[in-house]
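Entry 14. Ran structure prediction on the chain below.
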Amino acid sequence: MCNAVRCAATGRGGVRQESIDLMGVLLSVRDLQTSFFTSDGEIRAVDGVTFDIDEGATVGLVGESGCGKSVTALSIMRLLSRGTGRVVGGEILYRGEDLAGYSEAGMRRIRGNEISMIFQEPMTSLNPVFTIGEQIGEAVRLHQGVSAREARNRAIEMLRLVKIAEPEKRVRDYPHQLSGGMRQRVMIAIALSCNPRLLMADEPTTALDVTIQAQILDLIGELQERLGMAVLLITHDLGVVAQQADDVAVMYAGKIVERAKPEIIFSRPMHPYTVGLMNSVPGATGKRLRLEAIPGIVPSPLDWPSGCRFRTRCTSADDACAHSQPALVEVEPGHWVSCLKVPAANAPALAVEV
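Output, structure tokens:
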């Protein structure tokens, strides 16, 4: 999924080729902490999340609904609800610069241009009173300063790129005139209209049937290779990350509990939560067995358990898990786990007393 050449937009909506170092880190999230301030108190939705995305690579962020995946992406984009949501700690280093310190005007130059996002539900993300051509062209006119005619031509070009038939006709359609799969393709076209370096895809196949899901994922992979961009793929579907990701980070209750290459995660998961996720996936072959469910429910962010946040659902938890918060440590080369029961490579597992 990496390409030694990246395409960047020119002033007239064409592309030029630009050499990049794909071994470099494009985005580095360090100890990210995001809170929502409500009448019931502070809700720490993301707590100490750390990961890197290299140029041209795909990182899969997986976990149950409510674990903090989407909030992590919204924190990077600085799109949290005004007045209630706020990044309260950590760094979001994009090409070496901390986005957390950017002004709103500075972030507007980044959003949709350098970093784009595909949101979960295209029907609620697209504006029903504007044509899809107008919505694709809006970002092009804002970031590239082109005329209305040039923006329309760019919109047609993007619809053709995402394989929508008759783009010259569809550019005049409204969202309600398109199928779910076509609307998701329009969302991808909007996100890629300015050839971003980083695409964040938040559940890009939600509410689509299996055949259309495969087409959308293939399209994202094909465009990634063509444009040389990096991708943060947010999903609860383990099959998606197995197929698409170069690295996988598993989230639970606002924290990353395991991180490794997908082949490691799928062949030898070590955190009890990751093991539970794997055991809950039905096999395609062999004897049909009853699936193993993870007991209990995700705890409320207003009242996280002391120590390890998974301990109330973990069959291996003991008293130590209630008193120490495990750090994310490297248990083998390239494999990071946050669990007191899994010793670190060549060192005892570190923990934070609580």
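Residues 5-252 form a domain with the Rossmann fold fold (CATH 3.40.50.300). Will compare against last week's run tomorrow.
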